[in-house]
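Cross-check.
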Amino acid sequence: MDKEKIQSILHDVQNCSMSVDEAMLQLKMEPFEDLGFAKLDHHRGLRQGIAEVIYGAGKTTEQIAGISEAMLKAGQKNILITRLDKEKAEILSQTLPLHYDEMSRIGYLGELPEPDGTGTVLVATGGTSDMPVAEEAALTAEVLGNHVDRLYDVGVAGLHRLLAHLDEIMSAYVIVAVAGMEGALASVIGGLADCPVIAVPTSVGYGASFGGLSALLSMLNSCASGVSVVNIDNGFGAGYLASMINHMGGHK
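Predicted model, tokenized:
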């Protein structure tokens, strides 16, 4: 149940078009819905400001469809599905109004909302190979109501590429820095920006990168202040956190 639904119930009680007992019944029934294979948390949007997100990997198309349909029935306008492969997306799109992005493996129901965050979320990558993770972060932030700018392939192997975009870096409200290899991009951006920087290590790299562990440890040991780190390839987590920061208010 979202805030608008709660407000509608309260207005109905205030206008005497709904009894207190009826309102209590609706509120009691709403916290979660048991679908058998999943317990859908309808109150997450009310508690956290963002509705439950469907993690697509490991779920069948029938399970994803069932959860989505229950969320739509409960009045959820935008539904985000992460780690959704192309084959499942094609099946789901036959019965649901699904938008799908193959690079980020993100699907969403409903239209992208008008941005209502404080400022701009900037998503930057060290290389082109980091784009799938970056797009997961960027599209997550867009579905959650943020204006997102993208700055791709600006890694430290050619630092002048990054320095040519200082205006975007300085004006961003929060920056997501996505990089594999040695993960140095986050430290460099952290030393330039006056906003929070969310570092995302990727599994991109040669043998000694250990599947992204090298970038993770580099980012955790960043000497730049104001840099936080999410898990390897966790673009969704970075986009979600960036949205939370961007909706806290305040001005640049």
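The longest helix spans residues 61-73. The two ends are 33 Å apart (CA to CA). Passed to J.P. for a second look.
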